[in-house]
Write a structure and sequence with these properties.
CATH class: Alpha Beta
CATH topology: Glutaredoxin
Order of helices and strands: EHEHEEH
Distance between the termini: 26 Å
Shape: globular
Oligomer: single chain
Radius of gyration: 13 Å
Helix content: 25-40%
Strand content: 15-25%
Number of strands: 4
Number of helices: 3
């Protein structure tokens, strides 16, 4: 079962565009670093309107977490439009690290 995509934010109110890159974000309920990772993802989404972020709580989506070999939270997986994994961060990446990974996924 897939989690629901977080809304794609476009601060200028421009037309939404089809996602070019996708981030699977695995979190857990009482995870302070997960909140920090959300901030990094929010900043990336502000800068890249084509970014699609799907957040999954590992307790609610254990099959997806197992399939993606999630061992800790937060874990972010950047995927190209064809679904190929191009970057994985276990822990909180910096905005710059995430932006470089997103550029590689395009």
């Amino acid at each position: 079962m897939r989690g629901a995509p977080r809304s794609q934010r476009n601060p200028r109110g421009a037309r939404r565009v089809d996602p070019v890159v996708h981030v699977d974000f695995y979190s857990s309920s009482f995870c302070a670093p997960c909140a920090a990772a959300r901030g990094v993802l929010d900043e990336a989404a502000r800068l890249i309107p084509q970014l699609e972020i799907v957040e999954r709580n590992v307790a609610q989506h254990p099959d997806a977490a197992d399939a993606d070999r999630i061992g800790s939270t937060p874990t972010l997986i950047v995927r190209a439009s064809d679904g190929a994994e191009v970057y994985r961060a276990e822990g909180v990446p910096t905005v710059n690290q995430l932006l470089v990974a997103l550029a590689r996924a395009v």
